[in-house]
Amino acid sequence: MRGLRNPFRLRRAESIDTDDDFLTLFEPGILEVLPEATLWDSVHIIRSAAGGGKTSLIRMFTPGSLAALCRRGKNDVRTRELFQKLKDFGAINDAGPAVLGVLLTCGPGYSMLQDLSVDQARKSRLFFGLLNARITLAVLRGAVSLKGLSFPDGLDQIQVASGKQTPSLLGVAFPCTGRKLYQWAEEREAILCGSLDSLGPLKAETLPGDDALYSLSLIEPANLSINGAPVTSRVLLMMDDIHKLTSQQRELLTSTVIDARSPVGIWIAERFEAMSPREMLSSGAEQGRDYGATVEIESYWRGRHDKFERLATKVADRRIGEASDTEIASFHGCLEETLGGPRWDLKFTEIANQVAARVKARHGTKLRFQEWIRLRDSLQVVPRERAIEWRKLEILIERELNRKQKGLFEEHPLGEEELGEKDDSSVAHAAELFLAKEFDLPYYFGSERVSRLASLNIQQFLGLGGEVFEESVAAELLRRPSFALPGERQHAIMKQMARQLWDEIPRKVRHGRILRRFLESVGKFSHWYTYRPTAPNDPGVTGTAIRMTERFQLFEETEKESGGNEGMLRLAETLTSALSHNLLVAQLDYNCKQERWMLLNLNRLLCVHFDLPLGYGLYKERPLKTLIQWLDRPYAEPSEEELL
């Protein structure tokens, strides 16, 4: 892999050719989302939006990756941390891999079974029949790979004992060799797939099918051995892309593996897009006796934003470390972090003078604010800070003028103590945002903000980081004095990427046109509320919210078999589509104003599109009926009369 000009372009785990290259690019921090205590003995459902990182997690536990990691050992500086982490998990030990991780990708071949003109019971039997064959094939191939044997000759060294729940298999007498069982499974798969691909009439009643997933019993660690010794003490079956199954197949598979209570560890990985409105609007991850907690990757990082942003930077540094012909050493090296230098000092001096003149013209004769103005005039700070301080003062004065309950001595002069009580970092962030909007200054720049724009999604971050790195490399090739991108160029790139995401919504997302119309209303409402003169909810809002009781109303409508409220059902479908594609980020049971809320914050890149801040949990609630109206009627700013 080394030699790629821009390794950020390898956004998918499947695009990385070799296991060694994959290990070099894999950042161990992503493993934090996994529940270590129940990793091997429970069913775990792993969910994320596209690009959330679930497929990379799964690939890490495949035989090829584990064997490559053991081969490199703890002495390779690039994989030392990963080696120790996997050792702590019990996936490897000093002797080598300690788990047989089997990857089964559930592609469209399974969903074709649901289109057959037979009853549902027969479809389910064919589905189980194909699954049993493919699980068996995947486990036997994995065992050969794990032990470093050649394929297919290595199958002869594997012995398979019969599981207690395994039925008699036609042509297979247990115990048997891995080759014998492999041949049986291969023939069964060929019959099923060959019939589906045939142009002639399908005779489903003649196809092999099963009533259960007996392969889970067949692949238990005690049933697989080489020369009398177990192949491994743990078997982990990882089924990816479950969202490509039909809803009936998905529900059947999930309930079956949970009910099986198999000693085989099972991971079921799917995208959120497979989930129904009822599931997406439920109260979060469940956990029961028979299965572990659902792992929702974005939800995990939602309460750990700082950790994710540090993770994203480490991911970028790994990519840069594998780039060819560049002296760029880190992601931070690609980006200018501040607006400094003589050019910007002059710009901010002009801005500070302009804002100061505006404040004095409007409020300089008012006794109440004269001390505040004098204090700002006497500040000795750099030009950028001076501009922000004057804009902060303008916001604070507007708040004083708009207070609903003024004191008895409302004309009493305000002094330094009152100013200090009202001034804080949130007002400073609002002032910076207001200045950027008013004077066309770059705002979306710097490694911290670019990492935050990933919106808790690694693939989205790689897209952003790839554009930044591309231009930094170009600057290096052109021998410019610095290959760190200026703030204004970073801002322009982020705006371009935000526009690209916005334009893709109708084409790539279910209910895309309605959804974009709804998101536009959320964005425009947030923009209007953010840039009000008093900067309410400083530094601004990035979405809306409904009461949890209203969320429950939506949930109830999705439960009705017929006769539901059309507006609520449409909103539930729209929210489901937005949440599943990470265009909205939900937070349930948020406690505020003695009520509980469901927050709906925009994807960080959509915040860029609407010139919004990048903080989390910033919202302004709207009634459920208003959100329903936004599906068809775009948001319009209220008039001054309406505000009064």
What's the quick description here?
With 644 residues, the chain is of the alpha/beta class.
Number of strands: 14
CA radius of gyration: 29 Å
Structural shape: globular
Strand order of the largest sheet: 4-9-10-1-11
Structural class: alpha/beta
As an assembly, this protein is single chain
Instruction: Outline the biggest β-sheet.
Output: 5 strands, parallel
Poorly predicted regions are 283-289
The count of helical stretches stands at: 26
Q: Average pLDDT across residues?
A: 88
Distance between the termini: 63 Å
The amount of beta strand, in percent, is 5-15%
Share of helix, binned: 40-55%
Please explain how this structure is put together.
This protein has helices at residues 19-25, 54-60, 63-72, 80-89, 108-111, 120-146, 178-197, 215-218, 247-260, 277-280, 297-302, 305-321, 342-363, 370-377, 383-401, 416-422, 425-439, 447-452, 458-477, 487-508, 512-530, 548-559, 566-580, 604-609, 624-629, 640-643; strands spanning 43-48, 92-93, 96-97, 100-105, 158-160, 176-177, 224-226, 229-230, 235-240, 265-271, 295-296, 543-547, 584-592, 595-602. With 644 residues, the chain is of the alpha/beta class. Among the domains are: 344-439, no CATH class; 456-643, no CATH class. Strand 7 and strand 8 form a beta hairpin. Residues 283-289 have low confidence and may be disordered.
Keywords for this structure?
644 residues, 48% helix, globular, alpha/beta, 26 helices, 4-stranded antiparallel sheet, single chain
Topology of helices and strands:
Elements: H1 19-25, E1 43-48, H2 54-60, H3 63-72, H4 80-89, E2 92-93, E3 96-97, E4 100-105, H5 108-111, H6 120-146, E5 158-160, E6 176-177, H7 178-197, H8 215-218, E7 224-226, E8 229-230, E9 235-240, H9 247-260, E10 265-271, H10 277-280, E11 295-296, H11 297-302, H12 305-321, H13 342-363, H14 370-377, H15 383-401, H16 416-422, H17 425-439, H18 447-452, H19 458-477, H20 487-508, H21 512-530, E12 543-547, H22 548-559, H23 566-580, E13 584-592, E14 595-602, H24 604-609, H25 624-629, H26 640-643
Parallel strand pairs: 1-10, 1-11, 4-9, 9-10
Antiparallel strand pairs: 2-3, 5-6, 5-7, 7-8, 12-14, 13-14
Helix pairs in contact: 1-3, 3-6, 6-7, 13-15, 15-17, 19-20, 20-21, 21-23, 22-23
